[in-house]
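<instruction>
Derive structure tokens from the sequence
<entry> Chain with its tokenised backbone below:
===
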Amino acid sequence: MAGAQSQHRLGIALVAGAAIAWSTAPFFTRLLPFDSWTILFWRGLFGGGLIGAVLVLTQGRTGLQDLSRMGSSGWLVAALSTVGMVTFIPALQLTSVSNVAVIIATGPFVATALAWIWLGETARWQTMVCSVAAFCGVAIIVGDVRASSDVLGIALACLMTVAIGAMTVIVRRHKETPMVAAAAWSNVLGSIVSIPFANGIATVSGADLVILAMFGFFQVALGLTLFVLGSRLLPSGQAALIATLETPLMPLWVWLAFQESPAPRALVGGALVIGAVIADVAGDNRVRKQIG
């Protein structure tokens, strides 16, 4: 039982680390004067390259075998991750950021529902209550959300949320699959998909490449690797809930780097999201100690 509790705590730490890494996206994006598809191409190329290199350096021939023989579940995770990456940018272009953010905030509910359908995994009622609180926090952060006529953008945001929720469940279901290799391939696939839409691939400078490399290495490679590893150790709904920490942390890095003070609603909503995650983790730890 102690071993299971230790694995659970490790899962929480890994997914929280993934949320921190993912939250740096606005910081890096601010530093790059390129269209979204160009950024997506280079980010995926550097991110996938780093994950693959680390896999080979740390595991040698086994790492190469993981990259070349992932199996159907590994390719499914890679495909779903790619869908999540490439639908995010067009969704932001076709509808408001507020609409996209609120739709993404439904991720814990989507992951919980899919886990119940596929795995028979039921979420703790505390996790569901905290997920509702986190959703409200995100809604406060993004502000005035109105219905949009851009149906395609909303549909793409919904597709992204379902894809990431499904990926979370599959990672937990197929723990034996080399998910780090799947993360590497998902970045490469994202770069390939971006090529027809990118306008500035060949115009980046050396300094821009350094920023893009850091973007790919930290935000993508580290974030996605931590998430797929942590998702194996946590209930799907809880993993998705902890990942919502990404939203309140985004304005923090912009504030620290560019001195842009967050709006009061960002502070209130962020406190609600963080409080919801802490409450869920603390409640879960109490239950596990009582069982133990």
About this structure: The chain is about 80% helix and 0% strand.
